[in-house]
Structures are given as structure tokens and as C-alpha cells.
Design brief:
Helices cover 38% and strands 19% of the residues. With 477 residues, it is an alpha+beta fold. The protein has a seven-stranded antiparallel sheet, sandwiched between helices. The chain has a five-stranded antiparallel sheet with strand order 5-6-10-8-9. Strands 1-2-4-3 form a four-stranded mixed sheet, sandwiched between helices. The longest helix is centred in the C-terminal third of the chain and has 20 residues.
């Protein structure tokens, strides 16, 4: 085995080293280290992906210096390190297939500074987006990236998250200005500045964004903030066909209006949300549309959106007239995953997440729905269609293995369809270990080899979140 082969983590000698590291960390952190099985199992899996593997121990640092101590010790003993935020990722990012030490940063959850006059803030990685926005409420500013789950900022950075508001504000790459990180040997580095732009050398900030904890552990983040809109307008419209709904979203996204959100739910997902969130929406393909801006302009945009929806035979249900009603609708949208799970108690979810050029969106969604139905599967479709991103939630009976085979076939065809259209196998969920082969299909051998070369240069021992994005052994994608 080469030094970069994660299989070495499974040897008897490696297990002895792990035990020594756990004992040393227990002396250093006392009750802030846990080896309890239930705690380890919780930290060995996120949402959705059924497979998971627990770490050997979970440690809860409270500072960059403590993270550096942990990584330095693990590096000296060739022990894997797996970062953990809120555990909301869906592609197995937090699993520990080779054991090791899970670094749970949930206690590193402070807002360190807010520079309201510059529109930025400095936070620790364990703070969640909901907590951050609650802290910012009286400042007139907000952090816009909304993946649905109340994810941690560190996790959102690591998976290059986006979400409902990306069509207006962009995703995590557009919000991260600077960061501090602990490298694989325990060194602490700072990348980026609070300046709004820079041409100074390689953009190492963007290297960490989307690296899924494989290049370093982020311990501090400087984020761009945005002014809270003076006015918010919303529109909800149903359609007789999926194509009409998606064509409406495409038309809206091309108008130049200040669309903040365009969310699509097919009739299957609408039914699930009605039952789970106690709504009374017509069970047809549906769009939630939201505009941000200045009062009169927002009113004009809502009126124009109504015209566009009606031109595609949409039935406009009206807009939310109060902040409470808007919050109720968006809460239902954010709970869509759990609403889908509730449709089939005991099921396991497999979530597809593709993004295509907006011109190819309608065809891709319609063909995917037809493929799901032809395969006899239970799988609602929903997504942030304003930027061409949609999800399929396959609800699978764990006692019926043939369902998984059929779902995999539909999923593979969906990826092929997206790639053929010029799209990607993941718009926001990342690769983890759930999509390693799909990344290879999308990027090809040469590009994945470049990624491996970066990983090897930054983490020659291969201890940082091993097994994610790709295996270190180039013969095993």
C-alpha cells in the first residue's frame, strides 16, 4: 500500500495508533471527548444516505488552537480526521469509513465581528445560518444563502451550498470573502481579505469552498452580507402540466426582474406538503415565487409575474399578504424532505440533485417524471428552478432491493440527461462518497486526477476526511 491509500487506516497497527490518540485526547479534553456508541453513530451519518460509519471518538473543540492541537496529534499518528458541523449533508460527507477522530465544531458558534458599514461579518464555522440571521436581525443586514436545512456555515462552505435564494444572491462561493483553516499538519493559515475584490495570487479561498473538509478544517469565516429588502412580494401559481410550470420559471428568470426565489414542487410533493404542513394547496405542479426590492418596483414585478404565469395557463392563487403567511409557506417548502419521508413511513431516501442550463430544464424535468412513473417508483420532484437546479427524492422500501435497482437506473439516466444538456451531477449537495462515480462521469479521468494531485499536495498523508470526493487510490474511483 502507498502512503496515500486509506486502506492503511484499517490495519492492526493503525487501530493501535487510534487508541493512543483517543487516550491522549481524553487527557486533553476530558468530557469534551466522547466514545459513546450512540454519539459516534450520530456523527457517522448525515441525512438521506443510508450507509454510514462511526468515528472512533468525537471531540468538541472551542477554538482554532484546539483544532490545531487535535489535527497535529492525528497527523503525528497517521489517524483520520473528519470535520462535523450540523450533520445535514446528504452525500455521506461526515461518515468515517476508516475510523478516526470526528471534530465537531458546534461549540465554535460565535459571531466574532459585524462590520455593518462594510456589509460583512466574521463568524466561527459552527454557527448555523438561522442563528446568524437572528443575530443580524437588528442590523438591517442578512446572510442570504438558504439551503433549506439550518446548516452550519462551515458545512455550507465545505459543500459549496446554495439554495432557494441563489437565483438572486448567489451561493456560498459569492459570499465567502476570507477564512482561517487548519491544514493537514496542524498549521493555521488565513486566506483572503475583507476587500470586495483582489487579484493577489491563487484564489485559495475558493479552493476550500466545496472541498468537503478534504483540504483543511475551516475555523473562521468572513462572509458578505446583504441589505434586508425594503419590500417583499410573493406569488403562488399552479399549472396543469409540469412543462408549463417549468417554462414559466424559465421565462421569469430571463426577464431581468429581481426574482429572489422560484421554487417548483410537482403534484406528488404538493400532496406531501399538504398532509405534513397542513396546507390546502391544489395538488398540481406549483411555483412559489418571491421578489425583493423597493415597494413600487416589487408590486410591478409581481404583476408582471402574474401575467407570465397566466400566459402559460397558470392559475395564480395570490400572494402571501403578511410576513407570517410567507414564513408559513417557506417553512412548508423547507420541510419538503420530511414531508416526502412521511408519505412512506419506514422508507429510505435517495436524493438526486442535478443542475442544467435553464433552456434544458423543462425537458429534463418532464423526462425525469416520466422515467420515475414508468419505473413504478415513489419519488417527488422539487427544486430551485430559477437557476436550473432540481431534486428527486426517491422513497425506497429497504425490504425491496429491486426498488433500489430501479431507482439507480432512473438516477443514472438522469445524470446522463443532465450531462448531455451541459449540466452537472450536483448543483448543491456535493460529492461526499455518494457521488464519487458520478463525478468521474462528469469530469473525466484527467480532471479527477488533477483534483487528486491537489489533495495529495495539501494532505500527503490522506488523513483529512478520507474517502470523500474520490478514493486516494487512482485505480478505485
Amino acid at each position: 500500500m502507498t502512503s496515500a491509500d486509506p486502506g492503511r487506516f484499517l490495519t492492526t497497527a493503525a487501530r493501535t495508533r487510534v487508541g493512543d490518540v483517543v487516550a491522549a485526547l481524553k487527557d486533553m479534553f476530558g468530557p469534551r471527548l466522547s466514545t459513546v456508541l450512540t454519539v459516534r453513530e450520530q456523527h457517522g451519518r448525515g441525512e438521506a444516505l443510508d450507509a454510514g460509519a462511526p468515528p472512533d471518538a468525537v471531540v468538541y473543540p472551542e477554538s482554532t488552537a484546539e483544532v490545531s492541537q487535535i489535527v497535529t496529534l492525528c497527523a503525528a499518528n497517521d489517524v483520520p480526521v473528519i470535520p462535523y458541523g450540523a450533520g445535514t449533508s446528504v452525500e455521506g460527507h461526515v461518515s468515517a469509513p476508516y475510523g478516526g477522530i470526528c471534530i465537531d465544531v458546534s461549540r465554535m458558534n460565535q459571531v466574532l465581528a459585524v462590520h455593518a458599514e462594510d456589509g460583512d461579518c466574521v463568524v466561527q464555522p459552527g454557527i448555523t445560518r438561522g442563528t446568524l440571521n437572528a443575530y443580524l436581525r437588528d442590523s438591517g443586514l442578512f446572510f442570504p444563502v438558504d439551503p433549506g436545512a439550518d446548516a452550519s456555515i462551515g458545512g455550507m462552505l465545505s459543500t459549496r451550498a446554495s439554495g432557494t435564494t441563489t437565483v438572486r444572491y448567489g451561493g456560498m462561493p459569492q459570499q465567502v470573502m476570507a477564512l482561517e483553516a487548519v491544514l493537514a499538519d496542524g498549521r493555521v493559515v488565513r486566506c483572503g481579505t475583507r476587500a470586495r475584490k483582489s487579484s493577489a495570487g491563487y484564489d485559495l479561498v475558493r479552493m476550500f469552498v466545496g472541498a468537503e473538509g478534504t483540504l483543511g478544517i475551516v475555523t473562521e469565516v468572513t462572509l458578505r452580507l446583504h441589505g434586508r429588502p425594503e419590500a417583499t412580494g410573493t406569488l403562488t401559481s399552479t399549472f396543469s402540466t409540469m412543462r408549463d410550470a417549468v417554462d414559466t420559471a424559465t421565462a421569469l428568470s430571463m426577464t431581468g426582474m429581481g426574482v429572489a426565489r422560484i421554487e417548483f414542487l410537482d403534484e406528488v410533493q404538493v400532496h406531501a406538503c399538504n398532509v405534513y404542513s397542513k396546507l390546502e394547496l391544489p395538488e398540481q405542479p406549483l411555483l412559489f415565487i418571491e421578489f425583493h426590492g423597493i415597494g413600487v418596483a416589487v408590486e410591478e414585478q409581481v404583476s408582471r409575474a402574474r401575467e407570465i404565469a397566466e400566459s402559460f395557463s397558470g392559475t395564480v392563487l395570490g400572494g402571501a399578504t403578511s410576513e407570517q403567511e410567507r414564513d408559513r409557506l417557506w417553512k412548508a417548502r423547507h420541510a419538503a424532505y420530511f414531508a416526502a419521508l412521511a408519505m412512506r413511513p419506514g422508507c429510505k431516501a435517495l436524493i438526486a440533485d442535478v443542475c442544467v442550463p435553464i433552456s434544458a430544464l423543462a425537458e429534463c424535468v418532464v423526462e425525469t417524471r416520466a422515467a420515475i412513473d414508468a419505473a413504478g417508483l415513489h419519488a417527488p420532484i422539487l427544486g430551485h428552478v430559477g437557476d436550473g437546479n432540481f431534486h428527486v427524492i426517491f422513497l425506497l422500501d429497504p425490504h425491496e432491493p429491486d426498488e433500489r435497482k430501479r431507482a439507480d437506473a432512473v438516477y443514472d439516466a438522469l445524470i446522463d440527461r443532465a450531462l448531455h444538456a451541459g449540466g452537472t451531477c450536483t448543483g448543491e449537495h456535493g460529492i461526499g462518497y455518494g457521488k464519487r462515480h458520478k463525478l468521474l462521469r462528469e469530469a473525466g479521468d484527467d480532471v479527477v486526477a488533477l483534483m487528486r494531485a491537489v489533495k495529495t499536495a495539501w494532505d500527503p498523508q490522506g488523513i483529512l476526511n478520507p474517502g470523500k470526493i474520490f478514493l486516494s487510490d487512482p485505480t478505485r474511483p
